[in-house]
Batch of 4 targets.
Target 1
Amino acid sequence: MAKASAYFDLENMTDQRDVQTIKKELDTLHGVISVSTNTHTGRVAVDYDTTGVEQSRIEDKLQRLGYKIRVEKNEDHVM
């Protein structure tokens, strides 16, 4: 399993309802390991198994949920 982490800065993640929606929806993607959020900075961190999901699918899911991505960053980790 190859683990990667993707970080997204969202323009419009503002409250706990956004956090719950993001976590719930991203957890439905096969391969997502964990989702962390920070409403103060608008940052979402996603750890995922690259054999189960690609970063582009995570990004697409966020955009389909109505969130605008300012910045994204990807880091690969080998487990």
Target 2
Amino acid sequence: MHIEGLYTQDLNMQAMIKKVFKIAPVSACVLLLGESGTGKELIANALHQYSLYSKGPFIAINCAAIPENLLESELFGFEKGAFTGAHQQTKGKIEQATGGTLFLDEIGDLPLSLQPKLLRFLQEKKIERIGGRQSIAVNVRVICATHQNLAEKLSKYQFREDLYYRIAELVLCLPALRQRGQDVIYIADKLLEHYQQIFKKTFKGFTSEAMVSLLDYDWPGNIRELKNKIQQAVILNDGFWITSKDLNFNAKQNAFSALNLKEARERAEREVILKAFAISHGNVSKAAEILSITRPTLYSIIQKLELNIIQENRAVEVE
């Protein structure tokens, strides 16, 4: 199973992709949760593409990007003369999505004043334009997304509980890039291939130092930030290798929180071995060489730490 534009070898992400294909044919509302830059709109597009609404339009609206006084007319449309400047009848995003999918991005920023009207639409599948008196039936698949903690907003009465349960009939959680283990190296390789083709350049790859930097960085901007950094590196670099300096950040070293020496040692071994496998692209001999140990010693440590070699010879931690 593959989603266009989504690169991963992470088991949790692959499990999430399987859920996408199970959910796609169902007409129930889907709520996508995840930090900014994790690919929520990409998943929303996939849910549309593999749904019964795929022949219809995919209409997206960012609830956080439009001022509150304009958002209602953007969503529901308006009749001619409904307010100053309403010179003609205009369909809103909901009506435009008829027969297709409506993607409400950043639903957590939807003003409290608009939430009852959206709830009514979701319950009745009907809308009224601003200034109109006629109910208009709308057949759409609704997908919502947010980076916010909706449970917290519910507790503060900033988001209606009844609306939450209506939009969260099915929920998918997208992990942050820093939670996807060695995926950052795999994605970086794919993005490097992509931008080399676009900008007509050829690189041998990332230096070992650059790969360690990729693994150590926290990636607050997630995939979007990774794309920006690699695109910039490809444009500005005239050499053969992408270095840590080209990526334009200083990797943050992860500090150990455990005071137990045995736990700290095992955590350090696990992290270093996983990095070695990422840098060596899953090659055991090269990983052992990077670590300055023999293959038997490496296998012994892998067994002790309960690491396993899986798809495409990559090392990942067994949960």
Target 3
Amino acid sequence: MAYLIDRRINGRNKSAVNRDRFMRRFRGRIKEAVERAIKHRSIKEIDSGEKVSIPARDISEPTFRPGRGGVWESVHPGNEEYQRGDRIPRPKGGGGTGGGEASSEGEGEDDFVFELSREEFLNYFFEDLALPNLVKTQLASIKDYKTTRAGYTVDGTPTNIHVVRSLRGAIGRRIALASPLAAELHKQEEELHRLEAAPVPDMLRINELREQIHALKSRIYRIPYLDPFDLRYRNRVQVPQPSARAVMFCLMDVSGSMDENRKDIAKRFFTLLYLFLTRNYDTVEVVFIRHHTQAEEVDEETFFRSRETGGTVVSSALELMNEIIERRYPASEWNIYGAQASDGDNWHDDSPRCRHLLAAEIMPRLQYYAYVEIAEAEPQNLWREYEFLAEHFKHRFAIQRIRRLDEIYPVFRELFRKTNAFAY
């Protein structure tokens, strides 16, 4: 009988297999708990775990136990009403008194509460999100490899031995070693037959030939049928695989019209986007661009922490984005994405230029562009220009508005939901 021993390392008092089975069974309730949690959390708490409560009645399992049959008697302390032999009337409303609802005093039946880890919480949060149209491939992205066969090698493990190739080599070796001996053997056998058929046999020569023939046959028989030298093993090597490479451009307006509340919303949106990208796509690069009247490429820390102010020229950020694409991210090799957050305020003459830059130079290179306008008032000129782009580049250019903090998550999920999206 074979025994299978699971030696996977689990935490103390935890079973990974049972936990996965439990989470699959109550997937709906866990998903609801995650959705409730993200509506009330700050962006700094988004990647922490979550406690999920499931009513005890939903996890109850049917059980079987032996009943108490026959005739039995019991004595209850404190009985002042009945005596031995009295008949007890049947309770009104059916048998039994249990099953009633909990009273207002005290607590009812406790719910089953368990805690999702950080990894589990993020899996549920991002499971239906993806970068759209992630389809381009480039062999030079280096990280992905595939194991393929690469001929044969003279050493390896027994499981990789190639029987046919090994036997073919053994046959060739035996033919090469035995052919000269076989030719000499055939020659001496013919001479022996000729001498034995002679009227006066030369017994001295005949005996000599017989010894030589015996020696040749012994040498042929001693050639091994299969030698370790003949063994050949399947050889496998790792070769680079075409892998999708992507870059996300994050453009944020830090001009004076973006007050601290709007900047805070924009930073929360980009923090959520950054968390989504770094968690789900190992090969996605992120380029951070901040702009007021001038745009500059900054690092992650400066993008989220630094405070600046000034006028608004949105086209400066788009021009810098276009320059970086031309210099570092060829459209033939990269999946290029853009996400922009602004309050919509811009120089009146600059908004048509933004539209032209996107339509003529940037969008033909991009897979997807998402614009988020953070404003409570009516849409301004930049929004109206972008509306034309959204109509022209359907499914590749999306625009959304955020007015309050609690709208960040719904807008983010709408922009990056998996519908009509292809991800690797």
Target 4
Amino acid sequence: MRRTWLALVALALVPACGSGGRGTGAAPDTVLGAGAGTDTLLAVNGTHLWVHREGAGDPILVIHGGPVLDHGYLVSPLRSFAADHELVFYDQRLSGRSDGTVDSSSLTLENFVEDIEALRKGLGLVKIDLLAHSWGGLLAMEYALEHPSSLRSLVLVSPMPPSSALWGAEQRVAAAALEPEDTAGMGALRASAAYRAGDPRAIERMLQLSFRSELADPAVADSLHFHIEPDYRERSRQFGLLIPDLSTYDLTSRLPELRVPTLVVFGAEETGARSEADTLRALLPRAQVEVIPGAGHFSFLERPQAFRGIVRRFLRDGPLADPR
């Protein structure tokens, strides 16, 4: 997902199909479903964000990866936490079932971070645990630095690197790790009529192929499913307006100031575990950093019991003592 950003922007180079706007057609602020949880399209910070809630207890707000993706791939792996917590998932600005068109001037990292705070306030949450995956980890780190008093804890799962320079280096390593068969598969898919027509199934398959090299078991990528709106390419094009921010961000001088209890989790077989885990250990000396063997960028899918055990212990007891 951190690596997929360039691929997502590249999708915008093919003419978009479908119309812009909200793909669901739902009215704002209306509860749309119940049972395992509720779905709401909530007016937040000048747009409408799709929010899914389930469970009861202290709230965990979940930030998905991407960008341009949706929260759905995280619901089942995290659902067991709903036994003790209220889980609050949302689709980010321009993502998933949230509004498909926004003011272009709102597409800044600052606004993505302020969406989290506006969502917290709009839902009437006081203090939250923040759990973020991949690209969402960058938003979560920014949020923790700007709004530490709103947090009980911070859980970063395979987060995007804390600076654009580190991210660029990681992108190069990840690109070199692509297997020839996956590269060939993506090339063939890119040339297909379905992909060029913007078929959501073809776009989802492209995303699955792009994640294979970041998994201990590449076949797990086939179990990743995303909600692809008909205007996905137009959303990707709009997200391209974030490139100036993503080319210059740098949190490395500020992260040592972070006092929020923090857990960082990587899968041992992903690029970030080899290039980023030690960096975050140095920048966050009070954080607990865990690397799960036999897992990659989606450790909650590949080693779910180990992942849940680490996160549950952290939420219950806080970070382990620094062994150094």
